[in-house]
């Protein structure tokens, strides 16, 4: 195995420290082997992440969510001054330099996770400081940046490497988005994938799928790494995780798809059979990943049928989470609406079991809204258009639904686009396709268009024309230019302002 320069520096430093506590006549070759074993055992983020959890648990006991929220507000108002966070972290016996280092920032983020602070607008500014620290380490790396070794008379506390992977895991749990930070991580590790094992590569891919960042160089290199390397040491859970993450990032090429499927799937005569070691959550991830393909083939739909058959015959009542039920409802709705013939291939017993699962999920409640959706709905109500806001339909979240028309307003905020682009994510495309399959017409409003229209009357005119194109105009145009290809919005239409809204049903572009 080839080791990086940083790992070799760590090994030499560790060796020199251990020699202080070992008699001179000890077998040095045996010692070197023992050091390699310890180093491999504690590589990367596992020990580091556990230590972060311990310190965060101590801090969360002494603090409450209201106190942490006030600290975060003070941190934001002070222009991201790290000394504000030091007041909280200094309460525990956390080792490190004076002030806030990377470890302390991660501990503070884990405290926010344990106290269930969901206001991400308060937590996200910490990413700015973390990004600045990482950028310095990338430009000016040193041995001390990668090794933090402390010796005691009883034993050793080992921390190996900067905790990039611990950061990825914490960001996944908090659902934080900050693409500049992960661009730095991509630049740092995209050419050093050999020192990661498969589990760590699956964590990286899962992180970039959560970040909706498919243009990072590391994603392409991990895809090529899977394509060119042997998968003999790849376990089932990691293979399913990579399979799902690549599908979300639209990087699941046919070659890599079949190669990963060979790890967790057995190919039969009629149906694709998933191995017994694949749990139900992973089975559902495989089914959903096949729906995210641009043009799913018959073989992909056969895999989805096999997954539905496996879930229907192996689930236990009461063990299914609400997120599992939502995703399962989407898969069944997709097959019923768009591939009814293939869905009818399932036997009656399987269909009955599927219906029993769907009965458990009968969610019509409204979910938490956003400012963007509320603004659009307010404009529609002022135009005398009755609408329901933020509801679920067959597992799909509908932003705004008009009461008297089969029209859904899709308010596409930034999380429905890939990072640094205006390209909609694979999941957003799937949702839009499914809403149309339900029989609704769709009017799309993107956040970057709405933000450019500062004048209220411009927004009203935009909504009227978007509604006209969704309901009346039968022409098809490239969805890539949706919104931008709308005709010119007239500023001088004072005579039309006094007309009833029904006038715009006869709008001629």
TrEMBL record:
Pfam families: RAP (PF08373)
InterPro entries, sorted: RAP
Protein name: RAP domain-containing protein
Domain RAP: 407-465
Lineage of producing organism: Eukaryota, Sar, Alveolata, Apicomplexa, Aconoidasida
Organism in which the protein naturally occurs: Theileria orientalis strain Shintoku
Organism superkingdom: Eukaryota
């Amino acid at each position: 195995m080839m080791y990086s320069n940083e790992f070799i520096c760590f090994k030499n430093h560790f060796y020199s420290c251990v020699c202080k506590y070992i008699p001179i006549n000890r077998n040095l070759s045996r010692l070197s082997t023992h050091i390699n074993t310890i180093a491999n055992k504690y590589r990367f983020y596992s020990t580091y992440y556990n230590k972060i959890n311990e310190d965060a648990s101590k801090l969360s006991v002494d603090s409450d969510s209201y106190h942490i929220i006030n600290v975060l507000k003070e941190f934001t108002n002070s222009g991201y001054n790290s000394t504000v966070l030091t007041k909280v972290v200094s309460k525990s016996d956390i080792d490190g330099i004076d002030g806030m280092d990377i470890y302390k920032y991660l501990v503070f983020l884990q405290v926010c996770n344990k106290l269930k602070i969901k206001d991400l607008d308060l937590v996200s500014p910490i990413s700015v400081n973390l990004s600045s620290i990482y950028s310095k380490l990338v430009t000016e790396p040193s041995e001390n940046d990668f090794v933090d070794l402390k010796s005691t008379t009883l034993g050793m506390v080992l921390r190996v490497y900067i905790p990039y992977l611990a950061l990825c895991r914490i960001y996944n749990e908090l659902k934080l988005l900050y693409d500049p930070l992960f661009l730095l991580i991509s630049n740092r590790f995209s050419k050093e994938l050999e020192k990661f094992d498969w589990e760590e590569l699956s964590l990286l891919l899962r992180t970039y799928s959560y970040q909706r960042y498919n243009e990072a160089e590391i994603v392409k290199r991990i895809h090529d790494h899977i394509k060119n390397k042997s998968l003999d040491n790849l376990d089932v859970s990691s293979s399913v995780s990579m399979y799902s993450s690549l599908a979300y990032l639209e990087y699941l090429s046919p070659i890599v798809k079949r190669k990963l499927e060979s790890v967790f799937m057995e190919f039969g005569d009629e149906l694709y059979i998933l191995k017994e070691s694949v749990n139900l959550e992973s089975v559902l991830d495989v089914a959903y990943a096949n729906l995210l393909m641009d043009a799913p083939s018959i073989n992909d739909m056969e895999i989805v049928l096999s997954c539905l058959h496996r879930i229907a015959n192996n689930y236990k009542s009461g063990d299914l989470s609400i997120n599992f039920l939502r995703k399962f409802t989407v898969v069944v709705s997709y097959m019923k609406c768009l591939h009814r013939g293939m869905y009818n291939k399932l036997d009656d017993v399987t269909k009955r079991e599927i219906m029993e699962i769907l009965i458990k999920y009968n969610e019509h409640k409204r979910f938490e809204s956003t400012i963007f959706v509320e603004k659009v709905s307010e404009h529609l109500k002022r135009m005398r258009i009755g609408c329901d806001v933020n509801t679920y339909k067959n597992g799909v979240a509908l932003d705004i639904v008009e009461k008297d028309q089969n029209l859904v307003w899709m308010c596409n905020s930034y999380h429905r686009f890939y990072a640094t682009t205006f390209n909609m994510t694979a999941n957003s495309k799937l949702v839009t396709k499914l809403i149309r399959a339900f029989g609704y017409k769709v009017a799309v409003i993107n956040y970057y268009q709405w933000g450019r229209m500062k004048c209220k009357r411009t927004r009203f005119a935009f909504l009227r024309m978007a509604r006209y194109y969704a309901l009346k105009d039968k022409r098809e145009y490239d969805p890539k230019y949706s919104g931008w290809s709308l005709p010119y919005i007239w500023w001088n239409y004072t005579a039309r302002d006094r007309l009833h809204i029904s006038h715009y049903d006869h709008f001629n572009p």
